[in-house]
Amino acid sequence: MTGLITMDDLTNEEILSILDDAERLLPVARGELYLPLLQGRIMGNLFFEPSTRTRMSFETAMKRLGGDVINLGDVKTSSVVKGETLFDTIQMVDGYTDIIAMRHPRQGAAQYAQDAARVPILNGGDGAGNHPTQTMLDLFTIRQAHGRLDGLKVVLAGDLRYGRTVHSLSHALTRFGCELIFASPTLLQMPAEIVSDLREHGATVTETEDLYGSIDDADVVYMTRIQKERFADEDEYARCAGAYKLHAKHLGDVKGNMIIMHPLPRVDEIHPSVDETRHARYFEQAFNGVVARMALLCRLLGVTVPADVNAQGGAL
Amino acid sequence: MTGLITMDDLTNEEILSILDDAERLLPVARGELYLPLLQGRIMGNLFFEPSTRTRMSFETAMKRLGGDVINLGDVKTSSVVKGETLFDTIQMVDGYTDIIAMRHPRQGAAQYAQDAARVPILNGGDGAGNHPTQTMLDLFTIRQAHGRLDGLKVVLAGDLRYGRTVHSLSHALTRFGCELIFASPTLLQMPAEIVSDLREHGATVTETEDLYGSIDDADVVYMTRIQKERFADEDEYARCAGAYKLHAKHLGDVKGNMIIMHPLPRVDEIHPSVDETRHARYFEQAFNGVVARMALLCRLLGVTVPADVNAQGGAL
Amino acid sequence: MTGLITMDDLTNEEILSILDDAERLLPVARGELYLPLLQGRIMGNLFFEPSTRTRMSFETAMKRLGGDVINLGDVKTSSVVKGETLFDTIQMVDGYTDIIAMRHPRQGAAQYAQDAARVPILNGGDGAGNHPTQTMLDLFTIRQAHGRLDGLKVVLAGDLRYGRTVHSLSHALTRFGCELIFASPTLLQMPAEIVSDLREHGATVTETEDLYGSIDDADVVYMTRIQKERFADEDEYARCAGAYKLHAKHLGDVKGNMIIMHPLPRVDEIHPSVDETRHARYFEQAFNGVVARMALLCRLLGVTVPADVNAQGGAL
Questions:
Q1: Phi and psi angles of residue B91, each rounded to the nearest 5 degrees, phi first
Q2: Is residue C182, in this structure, part of any structural domain at all?
Q3: In-domain check, residue A1
Q4: According to a count of CB atoms within 10 Å of the terminal CB, is the N or C end of chain B lower?
């Protein structure tokens, strides 16, 4: 069986159909309905790099559906430190599980693992590479708010250079015909080759350093963390980052149904004053990680999500 | 839904009713009966400070009832180190779970978490603050041995200054009309404000440095660990701590049904010779942590414990 | 109830009957069949020393059978560092679980734990002592390939001095009348007292430094890792270890049904070129750890494995 390594593994139709499944699974993810579609299945959680949010939401997704999880655990005390190759580790876990969720610091590691494994690999982030389950939950969140994916105006802001999340999402949004506005300090601009690739695929892309001037027209503002380590000195960092901190006071003229997203954890790029506004959607977005991953787990394991979950699930 | 942050969240009637539920759940906790009352529910284990016993017994409680658990994992590699606030971490886990068990080094953290969460928080210890699930299992153990909570004579011994366990328990025992004897080195005395507060609430309190002279009349002797770090020098420690080490030889004149308790882990404040006596109750007390937490999980999740568990559970 | 501390706890008849159970459970281990024989049971995983493969396969074994697992977690942050004795830790976990899988760096620790516990202990390796579940999965793998255990010619190669795996296996193979060839550098020879003990029990043992000259007659070649730390200097290591690295080119004249095993993780004692040959059996061997442990868990918990699992299990 084949897994999900990059968004290119899915057609637009498949994406939409998985988002439909995710929508149906909402009451199960919320713990309102018991629907053990994955009872008897085991997922291996192989996080070669820690990621609390991604690991926990994969684990919740599996358990909400009645499945179970085994964790590789701390890489620092695992067989990896005894010099075991990724190939051998995958061979082992392949024999213990039905599906593997994996994060790895090295780009390409997920594809390498898929080539070695019989079970499907769910890429939970491979270095500067891909993070397709994040993209799926982002798309779910956007569609949930706006009822559609096509023709939206999306501002992506902050660190566009190193953030695989915004790279993946930009490509996906382009496939659905969104207009993209990239707001970032010059140092952290979206890489030129990605911008030109997006344009080749028909995207309308605007690049700017002015975040606050970009949001009034937007349907979605997607914030990311600007890391101090990217800058040569503290002053430069403070000057740049300061212009990418969203506060409730910036939201006076935005569209009523504009949503603000963030892959989290945030540091101070979104001020707590924003939390109370109708625009804040980042905590729901984190929750949507569960439902998006539930739908993906079912799809990759060949389990059909029933059209009417209420008819098949038990009340809780 | 609201959680359990401090014992003040429960009336005496509620305490007794939860202890009744715990009593009923004993065969389930012992693995003699399968009763999946919490099937489909997920508990988040957020231990910002390690605690093997508390974490494992919360986890066992949930799993014995057919529920499942997701762990935050090692705080040193979690999103917390990326600068995430407790508020944001709780928002995340809130979306993944139905209830959260939490331990945190900072006093007040549990209440803060409850204010941020939709799901109930079970405070598993917040710094020098509260540890109500420990108090519940202590009360369960005492009632199990003596058939009642009121009118007992309870010696609390060792480190009474820093031990949140003995603070919480003293308040609870006062509510049930117990007589309290505080036996400790001067340096580790029960804080004066707690003593006067207990007296205001009607407690009879005696303070002494003489443990061995206090136990012959007692119904319960509750030992705690005296930590070397509390003392300025090694000699002072050795002199003080030596007078708070219980040995079987000290038990010649005690009441036949007196029980010795300890929150564990112990170091050498209870000699192994005591383990064989009829008075030792600390290992059962640790086991009672499971049953007390099972009852609390059911209560906070709104699940009724059946009056006759044998009629509803399956044999194992 | 009593556990499994050493292979001496099992008669030959019991070993064969457990291997029969393991055989029956293969479709459950593969995730093709759902058979929750251990629903409602909890295993404690007490790994006082990390072991990814052993821990994960114990966990998978329990979960494939519908049971659940609680982990002691990182020993460095557990109650063990607060000075808790093994006796007290076992008393605690004994109250939380139905069975305990345990690995400990100290020889004899598993027996000590069994003496302290009411629940059965499954020894997952105690220092230089025993590792019986590894031996069971090794025997299962050999019998699966050759249809029998008796009268086989088995080469054990590499570090025979420190490897508890090969010590345990040698004893077990002797009980079934196998012929043993020990191929190792002089420095890492099988201890003389073990060799003489095996001979007293009727084994035919040959000792040699020549691995490549030993394999053409063999039914099984069991490789182990040679650790650099065992040698005084790097040159000595390189010279010795180089003669215990199996490559596909060495397999030209071996028997068609000869199998190559390794407890894993390997470093470079088996070249990847071997993976593609019909002889490689180490990844299946790792998988067999699940099915062997499933059979042992059932046996120790007093749960009968049905003769026809297909009739009782649910399709997946």
A1: -55, -40
A2: yes
A3: no
A4: N
